[in-house]
Amino acid sequence: MTDPTSRPAPCAGLRIGDQAPDFTARSTTGQIRLSDFRGQWLILFSHPADFTPVCTTEFVALARNAAAFEKRRCALMALSVDSLFSHFAWLRLIRDRFGLEVRFPIVEDPTLVIGRAYGMVSAFDTDSATVRTTFFIDPEGTIRAMTCYPANVGRSTAEMLRILDSLQAVDAEDALAPANWVPGEPLLRQPEATLDRVYAADGEADWFLGDAGKKGAQ
Ligand code: BEZ
To answer: What residues have CB less than 8 Å from 89, skipping those under 6 apart?
Structure first.
């Protein structure tokens, strides 16, 4: 039996396919509302704290790759429990130290009200230091993918772009992205799910893989 006092896992509150909860908040680019980002892709991601080593490397990596996200019509939005003025001071330090201006918004969430709505922190957490959650939200405001990393492992910008590329490609082609797929490689077709197709595939028990799937699985 489940212990009712046990801590729910991060991301427990939302599922792929859910509508991203709307919110209005102060950010480094002014007051923002999540629903104002409809019509474009949005990556909403939390980080444990400003002025910490791993988080700083993530922001430097994202700032360096800002054009790659723009090219894909995808906005970035960061969020942490730190105050707006802490965000400003940290961005200033990043600019002075690395010569990079972080121009995407960083939301302040001092009461953890947004973090809790998204399941980025559990109701039992007393601080936010376990949070490194990423939501991929499509132009209709639907959550399409989520990742959760621990505080001591930084996210991969390349993997964030790969997930985004995969989601955009499978939407455009009504197809499936196989393991390790990157743009330029073939996508998989939805298998034809009819008994006639199954019986017609004489001596072909792997009929459901399709040509691209057979190649990829080799
Ligand atoms: C970091 O970003 O370096 C970090 C943040 C919270 C806990 C541990 C490390």
So the answer is: 50, 51
